[in-house]
Amino acid sequence: MNREQLSRTLQQHGAVMVLGTLVIVGSLAFDSFATPANAASVVVSSSFLAIIAIGMTFVIISGGIDLSVGSLFVLGGVLAAYGSQYGMLVALLLPLAVCGVVGLLQGLVIARTGMAPFIVTLAGLLGVRGLMLAISDEGATTYLVKDRAFAALGQGEILGLSYPVHITAALALAAMVLLQRTGFGQNVYAIGGNEQAAALMGVPVARTKVYVYVMSGLLAGLAGALNAARLSSGVTILGIGLELDAIAAVVIGGTLLTGGAGGITGSVAGVLLLGVIQSLINQVGNLTSAFQQVVSGLFLALVVVAQRLLSKAQRLT
């Protein structure tokens, strides 16, 4: 294996390697770490962030960013809990419709006006958060999930794992196929690699950008709805900083912030890596949850530096 192949392998699969290493170290250091109960806890708690990270992967590979997903997550939960009084179908479709429309509007503005995704989605973050507060009377009203079938969607289990875990796995597999095996996925890579060159090759740049933001909005809304089903309520204080966790997981997973490179496997590994770090901190016992943010931040900084060095190494070869 030459230097270029080694650099590419480390960039694409480094998160998986580090994840495996941490799991081995944690299993050796703590007796309660490698238990089925702890593993299930990490996977279940990570599933909602993983759904959001799947959509974020498409956005970042295309050269964009979506800061609105945290607000869409909590809005999706509130709308799902509110809609559950009218049945399971409304509880699912209402958050998907609203969050999908928000993604559509953001995608149209970004694609048609050329405005920076950071600014557009930052406005979306604030606007969606304000909409959620208006619906919930400034957070004073917490809607409860009233449909048992919808609640079971978040709380039921198959093979010891809750339904959201299986839904996340199915979405990840579908996203892998979409990204790696379809023309749409190749268009996403092409736009992130060089938007001008992609346009000259006939790639529908504007339409592809709109699609990735719609996808991001839909997945954030779905994650919020599933979380509401799990908690049996639309909690209004969730989602703050969730967009940063999603971005961190995607970048740790090997997706370049500049676009054009990345994958779903790495993003899911990045999400699990953050979950394992939190679990290890909990195993220590005398460290607060704030320490997890410090570790995650340091790890993200190291990954970005490593990506920069690996990119230079690939150019030199």
Automatic annotation (TrEMBL):
Membrane topology qualifier: Multi-pass membrane protein
Superkingdom in the source lineage: Bacteria
Keywords: Cell membrane, Membrane, Transmembrane, Transmembrane helix
Transmembrane segments: 12-30, 42-60, 67-83, 89-111, 118-136, 158-179, 210-229, 264-284, 290-310
InterPro entries membership: ABC_transp_permease
Subcellular location, record wording: Cell membrane
Pfam assignment, any one: BPD_transp_2
Protein name in the entry: ABC transporter permease
Species per Swiss-Prot/TrEMBL record: Nonomuraea maheshkhaliensis
